[in-house]
Design goal:
A 5-stranded mixed beta sheet has the order 2-8-7-4-5, with helices on one face. Strands 1-3-6 form a 3-stranded antiparallel beta sheet, with no helix packed on it. Strand 4 and strand 5 form a beta hairpin. It is 33% helix and 27% strand. It has 2 domains: 69 residues, no CATH class; 110 residues, Immunoglobulin-like (Sandwich). By secondary structure, it is of the alpha+beta class. The chain has 5 helices and 8 strands; from the N terminus they run H-H-H-H-H-E-E-E-E-E-E-E-E. The chain is elongated, with a radius of gyration of 34 Å.
Length: 198
């Protein structure tokens, strides 16, 4: 292995600094006047950003940062009581307690998976159809179980699924009709084991 002499090392340092100074000087002249630098930048896939592009990017970054900072404020508080949930859906309207079919078992052997079915007899025409079906569980930590949105193209207003129940409680279903009326159905379910509340 050859060793460099101190004089050779100093000479290399001066050459490197001179080379760096030439590159800096050529960049100060502008990229249009230095095709060698442009070719090197293209090989390295480096773009020169003009002022307009920089300001647009900075503005977009600021807008996104502002939105993300306000994200916790946009989150909704969970509704924890049945009365509060019904008030939010119904407003001041008085629902009819008929016309909606709610099927749930009277006794649920496992609260982790309780089947339910909702249906409303409706012609499902543009003039008369079911807009939404909501299902609530009065004893769960968050009472809202699910909301289903329908259009006349849905054909019929019926859903079935499974839900988790924390303990013995009432299950309430609300249907919102296209004419602004509401239907309400209620059934009690006795939960024997499991559940989402422990």
């Amino acid at each position: 292995m050859a060793r460099r002499s101190p004089a050779g090392s100093a000479l290399e340092d001066r050459r490197q600094r001179a080379k760096e100074d030439r590159v800096i000087a050529s960049l100060e002249e502008g990229p249009a006047q230095t095709p060698g630098v442009l070719k090197a930048m293209q090989r390295l896939d480096i773009e020169i950003v003009d002022r307009r592009t920089f300001l647009l990017g900075a503005g977009a970054s600021l807008a996104i940062a502002t939105f993300l900072a306000d994200l916790p404020a946009l989150a909704q508080e969970p509704i924890r009581s049945l009365d509060e949930a019904l008030k939010k859906v119904l407003g001041d309207a008085k629902p009819a307690e008929s016309g909606i079919t709610l099927e749930v078992p009277e006794i649920a052997e496992n609260g982790n998976t309780v089947p339910f079915a909702l249906a409303v007899e409706s012609p499902m025409t543009p003039e008369s159809y079911v807009k939404t079906l909501h299902i609530f569980a009065s004893g769960n930590p968050q009472v809202g179980v699910a909301s289903y949105i329908f259009t006349p193209a849905s054909g019929k207003a019926a859903v079935s699924s499974r839900m988790r129940l924390a303990r013995t409680q009432d299950v309430v279903a609300v249907a919102e009709l296209s004419d602004g009326k509401f239907l309400l159905g209620k059934r009690g379910v006795k939960v024997t084991i499991g559940g989402c509340g422990g």
